[in-house]
Amino acid sequence: MAARPRWATALASFAATTIWTLAAFLGCVAVLYGATATRASWGGPPWWPVAAGAAVLCAFCALGFAAGLLLPGRFTAPLAALVTFLVLIVAFRVVLNESHPSFALLSPMNSVPHGDAGVFFHYFSDLYIVQIMFFGGIAVAVLGGLGLATASGSRIVWRTAAVVTALGLAATCTGVGLAGTARVEANGVVIPAVHDAASDRPIAYTPVCQQGAIPVCVHPAFRAYLPDLVAALNPLIHQFAVLPGAPVRVEQVSSSTTPELSVALSATEIDTLVGTSATLTGDPPVLHLALTELPSQPEPPSSQPLAIEQAAFVDAFIGPAEGTLGDPAQAAIEAALLHNAGSLPSPAAKAANRFAALALDVQRAWLLKHLPALRSGHIALAQIP
Amino acid sequence: MTPDQVRTPAGAESRIPHHLPSWGSAAAGSRLVRLYVASRRVPVALGALVGCSLVLRAALEWHWIPSGGPLTQQLPALLEAGTASVIAVSTYSPFGEPERATGRWLLYLRFGTAVALTGMAVGLLSAGAAATHLPGGSLDVVRNVAGITGVGLISAAVIGGRFSWIGPMAYLVLSEDAILNAWRTPWIWPTTPSQDAGAALCAALVFVAGVAIITARGARQRAAE
After folding, report:
1. Quick check: B141 contacting A, CB < 8 Å?
2. Which of A100, A146, A180, A321 has most Cβ atoms within 10 angstroms of its Cβ?
3. What is the CA radius of gyration of chain A?
């Protein structure tokens, strides 16, 4: 009986360990997608991230396996795990820090998508295709390289391993080259060579509306949040009803089409600033509101349900246009209306507390008289009653 | 088979020392320590700790660690867990513990190696962050390295030295998730500020427990090893 080539033995061991890894990964995906499916009211599961995740796991398994085979030792496994984590975290930091992070985009941990990603516009598959190419290529090249290292004189095995390695390297280099052409756009990463232009078009939908003080409409995917959203916005709508420029309708829009003040913030701080997710436009005015941070379902009530959406509403109405940061007087009035003066510096907080202590009729009368000047930035803190 | 039946190659007898040194002598003690350290691959472990220190330095130089916000501990915690994994794995010996023949010396060897490597990990990581701003500072490094090393030593006692790195890595995954989701509990100390006495106490307790259990029992010897 002929001895089995070492490469074949190594590939069998690799396949066995990788299948366990992939089974664990797919099990986690099944739990996540299953739990999501029981709560989702619209759309279907995105499969591209699953395929890319599987390719990433295969690549890391191949690298770890090769390290264990070529450098056997007690420290190989922990150091391989450490390097894997390190690569993922560093790539994530590079994507956040650099303005054109083309190559770091290859990392599976390259961004935190918005809460409404893939709802209003298609989730672009461009980056996933390139990631699969890159990581699949790494896995194939490493396994081929193992064949080269363990061929031990067999010319057929060596040639086969060389071809496999070359194919893997070609796929990896193609992935790197394509990532170099990537553009980060509002709705995702565009890679021209693999981009489907049809995915640029918005996804058609019929909004779901509820009549509160004014009609409030959301995408059907957010239907479950509509009653809470109406309840959160109604007091503000009533308070602004008689003021000039008050909205006659609230419509949900994609967060990619609303201005965002996220430049200097970390990933988890995005959208925490007032004014990052709503605009007030048109005649009659319509409030375009993006829902990016939402309470979890099916238990939405929290101490301040939909507080960010309330803040966005107030900022769009009081603050300057295009989501830019307002002046201290605007911030004080917004904080007074939101009962949130504690977050402001002392002088603005004092003004906010003064205004919040006034009766609603007095507040409304002051706003009726001074709102245009407040919006245009011509009110000082001292002028706030 | 008896020892008399074992055949040795010619000349091998000349390399076997005829006079075993007395255990009380400094030379014998030093030789025992040297052999113990070598069999646990402590020099390689030190190399790995130096590597972690250099990566920390690179991370600070190239701004991979944000200066503020909730993610500041993400990368330092990773490197601290890495050093803890290396220390935990250094408890493994493929031949069991032949030093049992030395009696009480084994306890000192286990204790000394674990504590010395932990001290060196803290020192090397602090040196890697010298003259730069490491969020949390050296106090964070001391607390996190000690605590996660305690997790690793307990893992070594429970599942064996070879796989003991799984404990610190599992703790790291838990910590990273806690950092990303802003969970706060003193038992996940990388998420808390260095002044948090509760977290420091928890980390110290875990470290003391880990050192005590590894000193008293050693890493678990599995049948396959």
Report:
1. no
2. A146
3. 27
Helices (H) and strands (E) in chain B, counts: 7, 0
* Residue extents of the structural domains in chain A: 6-200, 208-383
Pick from B147, B195, B183: nearest CA to B167: B147
pTM over 0.90: no
Whether residue B165 and residue A78 make contact (CB cut-off 8 A), yes or no, is yes
Q: Which of A383, A384, A246, A238 is nearest to A318 (CA)?
A: A246
What residues make up the domain containing B167? 36-217
- Do the chains contact at A86 and B81, CB–CB below 8 Å? no
Q: Which residue of B has its CA nearest to A80?
A: B82
Q: So what's the pLDDT on residue A321?
A: 54
CA distance B218 to B160: 9
How far is it, in rounded angstroms, from Cα A167 to Cα A143?
A: 11
The CA distance from A107 to A101, in Å, is 11
Determine the pLDDT at residue A274.
37
B55 touching A (Cβ < 8 Å): yes
CA–CA dist B89, B214 (Å, integer)? 12
Picking from B75, B187, B70, the residue whose alpha carbon sits closest to that of residue B125 is: B75
- B23 found inside a domain: no
Peptide bond before B186: cis, by omega within 30 degrees of 0? no
- Which of the two residues, A139 and A95, has the higher pLDDT score? A139
